[in-house]
Amino acid sequence: MRHGSSPTIRDVAEVAGVSLTTVSYVLSGRSGGTTRISAATQDRVHAAVRELGYVANRAARGMRRGRTELVAVAVADLEQPRERALATLLAGMLPEHGYQAIILLGAGWRQFMLSGGADGVIRIGAAAADEDAVTTAELAGRGVAQVLIADEAGDGSSAVHGGYTVIAAGTDSPEVLAGRAVALLLGRLRS
Description:
By secondary structure, the protein is α/β, with parallel strands linked by helices. The chain is 46% helix and 17% strand. The protein is built from eight helices and six strands. The protein has helices spanning 9-16, 20-28, 39-52, 58-65, 81-93, 108-114, 130-142, 174-189, and strands spanning 70-75, 100-105, 120-124, 145-150, 158-161, 164-168. A six-stranded mixed sheet has the order 2-1-3-4-6-5, sandwiched between helices. β3, α7 and β4 form a beta-alpha-beta unit. α5 (81-93) crosses α8. The longest helix has 16 residues, at 174-189.
């Protein structure tokens, strides 16, 4: 390992005394199936990871897999208690489903999403601006999963509009809204 650089998967393989492929299989959890890796070998790989302080490069993995494993949570105003509560809940729930939440404030979500920054977006409390409609249509055309939790009162139902799902906030609690938003987004991401 070069001085001052982050450890690589190659460094892990060298310290563990195994091949790059073995490290890849162990770290990705694909050590079953036709490729059997002994528990002792897996332990050596994990020990090398701890010893070196290796952290997988999320961007490189995303490029290989064709997805970021990120979900943007676009919030208009964190000063609003309901929006803050929803953002907090979503940031806690998404990792349970294999996605890291990225909290974006204001209009910055548009550029982030158009640049391929995340696999999907949950928008909270955003006023419908012309730029939002253009961005939403562009993302829908690309097949990006989108859920909007609308500010206007409603019965708490959801509907699909132009390739994205709208959840009318109604009087539902933030916990209920966050759960519904995650379920709907995951359904779109996995379809």
